[in-house]
Design a protein that fits this description.
The complex is a heterodimer.
Chain A lengths: L1 H25 L2 H5 L2 H34 E2 L3 H13 L2 H11 L3 H7 L5 H24 L4 H9 L4 H29 L2 H7 L7 H10 L4 H24 L17 E2 L5 H27 L8 H5 L13 H31 L9 H11 L6 H11 L13 H23 L3 H9 L4 H12 L1 H17 L2 H6 L7 H10 L3 H31 L4
Parallel strand pairs in A: 1-2
Helix pairs in contact in A: 1-12, 1-17, 3-7, 3-9, 3-13, 4-7, 4-24, 5-7, 5-10, 5-13, 5-23, 5-24, 7-9, 8-9, 9-12, 11-12, 13-24, 15-16, 15-18, 15-21, 15-23, 17-18, 18-21, 19-20, 23-24
Chain B lengths: L3 H26 L4 E6 L7 H11 L2 E6 L3 H10 L8 E6 L3 H6 L3 E18 H6 L20 E4 L5 H28 L3 E3 L2 H8 L11 E5 L15 E18 L5 H12 L1 H11 L2 E2 L8 H6 L13 H16 L1
Parallel strand pairs in B: 1-2, 1-3, 5-6, 5-7
Antiparallel strand pairs in B: 3-8, 4-7, 4-8, 4-9
Helix pairs in contact in B: 6-11
The chains are: A mainly alpha, B alpha/beta.
């Protein structure tokens, strides 16, 4: 099992990475990235991510207060609603904001032609719920007594927040900040679609260097920059990560006070934010989807069965959706298999009590892909598996395999704590009953972490369905996925293709909303471990 | 028995994956009935023509659109060891020598069609405003034509690159950059592809956009003939680039015979005759019938610019300079 895992990561992750490195080192990569233009692009990548994270947090703290610390009827519904954007594929968000930026008041307010403000809005749109959930999740479990004591002493709510509550939330805020920064720094689809010709991030510049300019050594140099950035952000995030992945299933453990009149400013800010920046973009997409040449109708949805204006697509949107579903299933299967196997290996108790060096090595090996963006992985696969011994690129499996490498670290980070949290007395008593290690695993440990497995599979599926960076390099022709097809439609937008992109996005938003409602209904019934 | 199941289950998982990979590789690529033609995104082949090819050749044609001409060429270079298709259509004279240099073509690229990349204008728009339309690309920088022109990014579009080459030829290495700066200051809009500019932003075509001047083809006006028998648009014939597109069999193709068959078909009578209406280009084969509207509404440029320059050697430098102005 050790060997199998190591071969898997070695062949499918470290080999493509080594290939990129060798391309970079063979060329004159240092000179090619040490230009003013690249410095500007790197700087933009960082500051837009920082600004997006700060804005998400500011609104997220207020939102966490209203939606988690206080109580009011209908709260569950609003929590589910704000989570929809986070579940959407980035390309759908990008498409949504191309429509949103055309609303007259948005155009005037944001000078939306320049791209940058709209990219930041879209980032905040996607990550707001992450901030609210992580901060709110901690906030709702805070003891009310302390806060009430402060109020009795005459402290106002804002003062109570600053001196009593905030110190207890710092950890959650830092955790949310680093995660949001990580997502925004690697947000390929948004910048590619909304940035136009002039706004570029490291990710889009890698893509452009490869596909438009065929400057592979420059791209390899950019990969190093991008990877350094994500690894720094990830290491930072990892320090706070404990609260980071309780995204679904936070049970309300402590009593909460009903919302009252003095909460008005917070309610107004949150309400205003949700209406303008969450609901309005979603409504704009749906509205545009039904808009046809004369009035409203279903023509855009009917067009999804075809190939777009002037037969732009090689397959219909429906067929692409089938590819995406198939890839999602395979990705989930692969990442769960490898993820369970690796978590099992690194969680086995050793005789010495501490993890063995092999376990620590394995842990490191399997977590490394987190620092690699999907664009980088797609580029690596394109240059590594083109031919020779292992012509994986020409098979459709290349996409689910690449996607599974992006999800495996996540699976392990969800499973590993759950496995180690199992009471070791259970294991020991089973051992004294002479159960074999495999019996203990299959009959005792696995059933205990069943809920966590379901959650991890859900994550894999969501990520696989929306994954765009790697697929854009690797999936074309009859293997195109839903996000790549949507990108083709929005980047070659005649009226018909534009309408089709809106219609397909509407369907995906509906799907995400339905899934969110189901999850929140499940949350009501039983908290997931 | 003690360790067996533990090892077996994940291993069998990996084994299955491996088996599926091999199975797909063996079955996927080698069906000799199927032939994949890789094209740029603006390629159009009617269902009737596809069916006709399938019937007469005995192959099943699959089309694979791989982006603009530049992306298409680059993608083929990146995947040349196991190409994504059998034949290619749409590499033009701005990229042809680059493709040959990188050895992606088995044999030679054969020219299939040509057209003059010129600006078009919306005649109605100018008549309504009693404004004289421009007659040369040099006039596009005049204040009276401010914010009226939409053209394509030369980084992502072959028509855009064609026009860039034409300006370099016409204005010389010393003059073209300042021309582009004036264009930018005069409010030109830049789109990524030809479709977006022509079908969305241009006022004289189906999108009824806000820009009455668009970078397109000298032949486009023939496709904008209205019920009164007149074309709504006309071309600016000064400052055109003669674009030629090519087809060829890809090296290492799975189905080289099928690839040869589709390349021959593209040069055959029926397909050649479809060029004017489907892609607004002239067929390369002499004697192919041209629609009547074409002789009435289109003309071939008396003099073209840029097509004789060494595009392959200069493309990167020009594009970097252009990007420095626009990005």
């Amino acid at each position: 099992m050790w060997v199998a895992s190591l071969i898997f990561f070695g062949a499918l992750f470290y080999w493509p990475l080594a290939k990129i490195l060798s391309i970079g080192l063979n060329g004159n990569w240092l000179a090619e990235i040490a230009t003013n233009k690249i410095v500007a692009i790197t700087w933009f990548t960082i500051w837009q991510a920082v600004l997006s994270a700060v804005l998400s947090l500011l609104f997220g703290i207020v939102g966490g207060y209203v939606l988690y610390h206080r109580f009011f009827p209908g709260q569950k519904f609003i929590r589910a609603l704000i989570t929809v954007p986070f579940m959407l594929p980035t390309i759908v968000v990008a498409i949504g904001f191309t429509a949103f930026r055309e609303l007259p008041f948005v155009t005037n307010l944001l000078q939306a032609n320049s791209g940058v403000p709209i990219i930041i809005c879209a980032n905040v749109f996607m990550n707001y719920s992450l901030a609210v959930r992580i901060i709110g999740g901690v906030w709702q479990s805070l003891d009310l007594d302390l806060e009430e004591a402060a109020e009795l002493d005459g402290a106002g709510r804002l003062r109570t927040f600053i001196s009593v509550t905030f110190p207890q939330l710092v950890h959650a805020i830092a955790s949310a900040a680093s995660l949001i920064f990580l997502y925004c720094a690697a947000n390929f689809g948004l910048v590619l679609v909304l940035g136009g010709t002039s706004v570029k991030s490291l990710e889009t510049q890698i893509y452009i260097s490869v596909t438009q300019n065929l400057e592979l050594s420059k791209a390899a140099g950019l990969v190093l920059l991008q990877t350094m950035l994500t690894i720094i952000a990830f290491v930072w995030a990892h320090r706070f990560a404990k609260s980071g992945f309780a995204f679904f299933g936070q049970a309300t453990l402590t009593r909460r006070r009903h919302i009252d009149r003095r909460d008005l400013p917070a309610v107004v800010i949150t309400g205003f934010f949700i209406v303008i920046l969450i609901c309005l973009p979603l409504i704009t997409i749906i509205w545009r989807a039904f808009m046809v040449e004369k009035g409203f109708g279903l023509q855009n949805f009917a067009n999804l069965a075809g190939f777009g204006a002037r037969d732009l697509l090689s397959i219909s949107v429906g067929q692409a959706a089938m590819n995406t579903l198939r890839n999602g299933v395979i990705t989930t299967a692969i990442s769960m298999t490898i993820g369970i196997m690796t978590s099992f290996l690194i969680s086995r108790p050793t005789k010495l009590g501490n993890p063995s060096w092999l376990q620590r090595f394995m842990d490191l090996i399997s977590q490394m892909p987190v620092g690699i963006s999907s664009v980088v992985l797609g580029f690596g696969y394109l240059v590594s598996f083109g031919g020779g011994l292992f012509p994986l690129r020409s098979s459709w499996l290349v996409v689910p395999i690449a996607q599974s490498l992006l999800t495996i670290p996540l699976v392990i980070r969800i499973l590993y704590p759950a496995i180690t949290a199992i009471d070791h007395q259970l294991r020991e008593s089973a051992q004294t009953e002479s159960a074999t290690p495999s019996q203990i695993w299959w009959l005792i440990e696995l059933p205990i972490i069943r809920n966590v497995l379901v959650m991890a599979s859900g994550y894999c599926a969501i990520i696989a369905v929306g994954e765009f960076g790697a697929a854009n390099f690797l999936a074309y022709g009859d293997q195109a996925t839903l996000p790549t097809v949507l990108y083709q439609l929005i980047s070659r937008s005649g009226a018909q293709n534009y309408g089709m992109a809106m219609a397909a996005s509407t369907l995906l938003i509906t799907a995400a909303a339905v899934i969110m409602c189901l999850i929140s209904a499940l949350e009501n019934r039983k908290p997931i471990a | 028995m003690k360790i067996l199941p533990k090892v077996l289950i994940p291993l069998s998982g990996i084994l299955t994956i491996g088996l599926v990979v091999t199975a797909v590789n063996l079955s996927g690529g080698t069906t000799t009935k199927e032939v994949v033609l890789v094209t740029h995104s603006s390629f159009v082949m009617s269902k009737e023509l596809i069916a006709d090819f399938d019937q007469t050749s005995g192959y099943t044609l699959k089309l694979l659109k791989a982006g603009d001409t530049g992306s298409l060429t680059n993608r083929l270079i990146l995947t040349k060891q196991s190409p994504i298709g059998d034949a290619v259509f749409g590499i033009d004279n701005t990229f042809a020598s680059f493709a040959t240099e990188n050895e992606i073509i088995d044999g030679a690229l054969v020219p299939t069609n040509f057209g003059d990349v010129c600006f078009n204008y919306d005649k109605n728009w100018f008549t309504e405003r009693k404004l004289t339309p421009p007659t040369s690309i040099l006039e596009l920088v005049l204040p009276k034509y401010k914010s009226l022109t939409v053209l394509q990014n030369p980084n992502t579009s072959s028509t855009g690159l064609s026009f860039l080459a034409a300006t370099v030829d016409m204005l010389g290495e010393s003059g073209w950059e300042s021309y582009w700066r004036s264009l930018k200051n005069n409010g030109v809009k830049v789109t990524n592809g030809w479709e977006a500019a022509y079908f969305t932003d241009f006022s004289g075509s189906s999108g009824k956009g806000a820009y009455p001047i668009v970078l397109s083809y000298a032949s486009s006006p023939a496709n904008e003939v209205r019920s009164d028998g007149q074309s709504q648009t006309a071309s600016i014939m000064d400052g055109c680039f003669r674009q030629t597109e090519y087809a060829g069999v890809l090296k290492n193709a799975n189905n080289p015979k099928g690839a040869q068959a589709i390349v021959s078909y593209l040069l055959g009578k029926k397909f050649q005759a479809s060029f004017p209406e489907a892609m607004y280009m002239y067929p390369i084969v002499a004697g192919t019938p041209i629609p009547a509207s074409w002789s009435k509404f289109t003309q071939v440029a008396a003099r073209t610019y840029g097509d004789t320059l060494d595009l392959n050697a200069n493309r990167k430098i020009w594009l970097a300079k252009w990007s420095a102005i626009f990005e």
